[in-house]
Amino acid sequence: MRGxxxxxxxxxxxxxxxxxxxxxxxxxxxxxAEDWRYIGSLGLAGAGLxxxxxxxxxxxxxxxxxxxxxxxxxxxxxxxxxxxxxxLIVSALLALPISTLPDPLGQIxxxxxxxxxxxxxxxxxxxxxTEVFNLFSSRRSSSLGQQVFGPLGVLVDSSxxxxxxxxxxxxxxxxxxxxxxxxxxxxxxxxxxDSDDSLRRKRGRRGLDMLNRLQKEALITVRxxxxxxxxxxxxxxxxxxxxxIHHCPIMTTDxxxxxxxxxxxxxxxxxxxxxxxxxxxxxxxxxxxxQLVHEGKEYxxxxxxLDDGTMVVVEDGKGxxxxxxxxxxxxxxxxxxxxIAFAYLTSNSRTAKQE
Length: 355
Prior knowledge:
By secondary structure, the protein is of the alpha/beta class. The chain folds into 4 domains: about 1-55; about 65-135, no CATH class; about 155-275, Rossmann fold (3-Layer(aba) Sandwich), CATH 3.40.50; about 285-355, CATH 2.40.50.140. The protein contains 14 helices and 10 strands. It has helices at about 1-25, 35-55, 60-70, 75-100, 105-125, 130-135, 160-165, 165-170, 185-195, 200-215, 235-245, 255-265, 270-275, 345-355, and strands at about 155, 180, 220-225, 250, 270, 285-295, 300-305, 310-315, 325-335, 340-345. The strands form 2 sheets. A 5-stranded parallel beta sheet has the order 3-2-1-4-5. Helix 1 (about 1-25) packs antiparallel against helix 2 (about 35-55) and helix 9 (about 185-195) crosses helix 10 (about 200-215).
């Protein structure tokens, strides 16, 4: 509000002086007593006009420009600037021979060529921005073979922060980052932490604690960013749009966000998929020891879990729930939630059961 008021006062003074200058120019010299009424009226009219219009020709365009710049990728701005400079240089070289043409062509054509070539240069640079950047800088690569992301980094969803495994992944060095947490994601975590539901409240607080841990302990940079898309309300849609603009992936554990991003051509780093990919392979016929924790769906079955969370269904294991048993894997069943292993008790476990 103070900025608006200051701009209005400045505009009032400038337009007031402009009104006086116009009135004095119209009155000419000498100035008679009756002219002062018209001079004063034009001065006051200019001051009032400046008071009303100045914010609309200064603050409103600046706010629009600031919002627009937040949604435009920095590489697009740089590419357009380089194309604009190239167009101006070419138009300046052509201005001298064109200005020798007879008037009015010699006066009008240099200006037309400047505008036209500047637009063409900026348009070509935007369309071929990848080639433009490759001319000025070598493509970024990692000497250690780490994954290299876009110029912004990796956008992080609130679900990945709440999940918690992101901290351990970052500690291993498999993600080269940086990790970008937009402020609207941080606000979503705060809303979850302030929820009336106790479970959601615990999840939100865990997410805030995990974000604090990431900033203090992670081997890569974690930044809180002001990037936003003002005309979109939904957090997931904001993330997808920002990822499209800045050509960067989204780290998440949200299945729906993962699918929506893929449909729009945005790459995702799904922690669940990573966990599935690095699970140790259990082969049919392999023998191992496992603790049975509860009954299965079918009669006589017992269920246990491997260290990586893989569920193992053991035939005839109901009677040994709560015990450590020796089993042999019979077959594997892939599902959307991961692999399920089916097994049977080995001879050692059957002998112990009979005893």
